[in-house]
Structure formats: structure tokens, C-alpha cells
């Protein structure tokens, strides 16, 4: 993905936390990589995401192989991203009440899938999301590497939100 933002204005920072020992034990709920990939695909398929397409690419970043998941969903604001990166938050039950015969039903109910799936596939996960509705972009970072290198007892998860003035953001998805 190539993005050329016009002007990004820093808006706020939310800081979810988790004990570093939890990352590895949580990732073992996926016995193989494909179940972790399926978890991330399921997230893009949920009705609140509203994605109609999902791309999975293997790229080299910093000389290391990386999986890049990109969807065309409605994006998340910083509060929603903070909940997704924290444990135990799940708002999917409210969509079940609205479901009709041709409506996608949400998958998962405990707010753990993204964390367990991404940490099964890699030591670090960087999330970029654009919320057109509120004209914001948010960035969140889950990192076992940062935790291990810093010998931390509590891992602080950096999370930033930017305002996109006049929604000027030019992106070309391959």
C-alpha cells in the first residue's frame, strides 16, 4: 500500500496494557499458522467491519518476511482500535439482534482473536486503520520483541490517532 497523506495532525493517545507473559501462552490457542490466518480473515468478514475484499501479501520489511493483511472495511477509530488490542472487549453480540436471513453473523465473542492470531504468526503486529466516517487514521503496535528487549513487567501498547484534514489521503492498494 502506498499512501501520501497531506497533513496529519496528532489528536490523542490511548494506552492499553497487558502482562508480557500472556502473549506466548495466548498464541498457543492456535495449533498451526493457518488457524491464526483464519482468525484474522474472520475478523475482516465480521458485519461491523463491512469489508468486501481482503488481500494477504508476503512482503520483506527491514529484510524480514512479513504478512500484510489489508481489507477495504470501514476502519476503526482509536477507541475501537484500543478495545481490539486489549483483552476481553467484544461488541459483536449487538449485531446478532440485527441479523436477518442474508446478514453476515459475527464470528467470535471473547475479544481474543486478533491478539491470539497475530501473536501466533509473528512477534510483532503493527495496525494501520483509516476511519473515513470520522476522518481519522489510527496506528497501534503489539510487540513481544519490545517487551523482551526492554525486560518489561507490563507492556504498554502504543496507540495513536491522527486527524486527516479535509480527508485528504491518497492511497493506492495493489
From TrEMBL:
Pfam families: HATPase_c_3. One of its GO terms (cellular component) is nucleus. Transmembrane segments: none annotated. One of its GO terms (molecular function) is ATP hydrolysis activity. This is Uncharacterized protein. It comes from Littorina saxatilis.
Amino acid at each position: 500500500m502506498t499512501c501520501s497523506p497531506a497533513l496529519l495532525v496528532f489528536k490523542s493517545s490511548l494506552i492499553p496494557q497487558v502482562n508480557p507473559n500472556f502473549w506466548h501462552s495466548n498464541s498457543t490457542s492456535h495449533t498451526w499458522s493457518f488457524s491464526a490466518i483464519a482468525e484474522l480473515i474472520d475478523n475482516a468478514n465480521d458485519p461491523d467491519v463491512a469489508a468486501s475484499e481482503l488481500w494477504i501479501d508476503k512482503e520483506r520489511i527491514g529484510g524480514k518476511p512479513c504478512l500484510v493483511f489489508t481489507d477495504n472495511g470501514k476502519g476503526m477509530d482509536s477507541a475501537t482500535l484500543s478495545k481490539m488490542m486489549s483483552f476481553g472487549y467484544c461488541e459483536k453480540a449487538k449485531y446478532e439482534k440485527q441479523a436477518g436471513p442474508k446478514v453476515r453473523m459475527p464470528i467470535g465473542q471473547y475479544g481474543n482473536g486478533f491478539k491470539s492470531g497475530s501473536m501466533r504468526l509473528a512477534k510483532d503486529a503493527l495496525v494501520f486503520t483509516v476511519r473515513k466516517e470520522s476522518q481519522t487514521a489510527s496506528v497501534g503496535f503489539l510487540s513481544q520483541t519490545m517487551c523482551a528487549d526492554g525486560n518489561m513487567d507490563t507492556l504498554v501498547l502504543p496507540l495513536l490517532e491522527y486527524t486527516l484534514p479535509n480527508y485528504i489521503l491518497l492511497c493506492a492498494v495493489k
